[in-house]
Amino acid sequence: MKASKFTDAQKAFIIKQAEDGTSVAEVCRKAGISSATFFNWKKMYAGLMPSELKRLSRPGKPTDNAFIEAFNGRFRAECLNSHWFMSLEDAAEELEAWRRDYNEERPHSAIGNNAPAELMKSAHDTSPCT
């Protein structure tokens, strides 16, 4: 796919002009784009700010969500790399056992060295809605 000569901010500005009342034909003429290009951009980017467009147009990075990256590392090291799955059923059983241990037995330092299941139970017991 050919790279656009327009920046994300320019695309957002072009779409915003049409949203503010300038005719599509006039916006396209000023920008030097076809109406098909305009409507493709509008379908993909309408309502997004330039910063949101930039986030969509770049590949994801591990620093975008450090929590999921930390979980993925633990899951890979403790479950996927530790087992040799012989069948799909075997994989499902091992993954479920690891998930139960992770959520119901294992203490997590981020929540006061409690297991998530304990935390949910204590929150449910102290909830005024029960």
UniProtKB/TrEMBL annotation:
A biological-process GO annotation: DNA transposition
Region (Disordered): 107-130
InterPro entries found in the cross-reference section: Homeodomain-like_sf, Integrase_cat-core, RNaseH-like_sf, RNaseH_sf, Transposase_8
Pfam families in UniProt: HTH_Tnp_1, rve_3
Domain of life: Bacteria
PROSITE patterns named in the record: INTEGRASE
Annotated Integrase catalytic domain residues: 1-124
Signal peptide: none
GO molecular function, one term: DNA binding
This protein's name: Transposase
